[in-house]
Amino acid sequence: MKVNSTVLLTVSLFALAACSSSDGGSGGGGGGGGEISQGIFEQELPTAEELAGLPQEAQDFVAAWDDLNQNGTEERPNADATYAGSVGFAVESGTAEDNTLVFGDISLAADFTGDIITGSMTNLSAFDSETPPEGAALGGQLDLSNGAITDSRYTADFGGDLTLDDNGDVETFSVAGDLEGAFAGTQTLGVLTGTVTEGPVVDQIDGIFLADQQP
């Protein structure tokens, strides 16, 4: 997934890949030489040097995820709950300089009667070495499916088509993957992996998400 625009963003947020979760759950593939966050999940995160080259919003997102992952306690809520927060993932196209970073919003709804999790990822923007600092807005959204809750954990598939309008030239990217999450007090966090396909080109994606319980 390559975004064609202007200006320079030199560092990919997730020149990383998720490792397996601390109790053997799902996660992403190989390592990228970043910092390992060990706790609810075992996840490779960007180094301090890499984070320093990113917008403050991205730095705060990673720091908050890392803090909850290392210091939070898994706890299944007593009643149905909805969550809203942020998601970030890297489309790994080769070297870190070629990677595309995608940021956006995630919303989740947990039905503990049926042990079902639903949700979507919306308001997504892409950042790479050619986008402006504010990124390039992506059309479409990614929806969760086959979501299942087991104790304080949940899994789901996600997918959808994202579009990029580059001065009238619309590109379509098909995204498919799976995620694993955990409930931790009034928050939830997790990891995701998958693929993004444009024509014959298939790239891997790895990322994290963090959301707060809504009133």
TrEMBL record:
Keywords: Signal. Residues 1-17 form the signal peptide. The lineage of its organism: Bacteria, Pseudomonadati, Pseudomonadota, Alphaproteobacteria, Rhodobacterales. This is Transferrin-binding protein B C-lobe/N-lobe beta barrel domain-containing protein. The keyword Signal applies. It comes from the Bacteria.
